[in-house]
Amino acid sequence: MSFNDDTKLVDSGVTVDTGSAKVDPTKAKEIQKFTHTRPLTTCRVDPSGKYAFAGAEDYGIYRFDLETGDKVAYLGHDSWVRRFDFSADGKTLLSSGWDGRIGFWDVEPVEITEVEITAAIKKTEKEEAKPAVMQLQVAAIKMVEAHQGFSRWVHVAPDGKSIATCGNDKLVKVWSAKKMKLRRHCVGHERHPWAVMIHPNGQELVSEDIMGEIIVWGLKDGKQRSKIDASVMTGFDLKFQADMGGARAMAFNHDGTLLGCAGTTNVVNAFAGQQDPIICVIDWVSKEITHHLRTKDNKPGIEWGVHFHEDGFVVGCFAGQSNNGTVEFWRLDEPAAAKPEAEVDTDLVSEKSESTESGQSEKPKPIEQKPFHVVKVDKAVRGLDFIPDGRRFAIACADGSLRVYEL
Question: What is the pTM of this model?
Answer without folding.
Answer: 0.85
